[in-house]
Design goal:
This protein has 158 residues and is mainly α. The chain is built from 3 helices and no strands. It has a domain of 107 residues. Helix 1 packs antiparallel against helix 2, helix 1 runs parallel beside helix 3 and helix 2 runs antiparallel to helix 3.
């Protein structure tokens, strides 16, 4: 590499310090949009299909599925709120006019945004896993009731 190229890379590295927070904010906005859409989609699915699908289940299965769906909805909502916080920040008490104060705030805010984004993505994944678990458990219980042990399966051993 040439000296000029090395200088340009060093200059870009110095500028990165000043562009990191805006980049994280843009990333968080994408997550916020995705999580909000996913939460809305799952809420609509639960509201439209929830009651009649769970009505024929035993009480323990119905209660378990309802608990899983509620926990999933709470996780997805929490993930959405964390993504909003990461994208837009929290209302600040003061306006920072000093260079060092602004630098400290930027470093702290970058850490908070990164942490909020990590928690938002974890909440999203766990929420989807719980929805799948609730639906899978419902199908498993329905299948077991339709085909009790030893009778009615696709293979009867005869």
């Amino acid at each position: 590499m040439s000296t000029r190229s090395d200088r340009r890379w060093a200059e870009l590295a110095r500028e990165l310090e000043f562009t990191r927070l805006p980049e994280l904010r843009r990333q968080a906005e994408g997550w916020r949009t995705g999580l909000t859409g996913l939460t809305a989609l799952l809420a609509v699915l639960v509201l439209l299909k929830g009651r009649d699908d769970l009505a024929g289940l035993p009480a323990w299965a119905r209660d378990s599925a309802t608990g899983l769906l509620l926990a999933a909805f709470l996780l997805l909502t929490t993930g959405s709120l964390l993504a909003v916080r990461a994208a837009h920040g929290a209302p600040e008490r003061e306006i920072l006019l000093g260079g060092q104060a602004l630098r400290r705030w930027t470093e702290q805010e970058t850490a908070r945004v990164t942490r909020a984004l990590a928690w938002a993505s974890l909440c999203c994944v766990l929420g989807v896993v719980l929805v799948v678990g609730a639906r899978g458990g419902r199908w498993g219980v329905s299948s077991a009731r339709a085909h009790p042990a030893g009778g009615g399966g696709w293979y009867t051993g005869r």
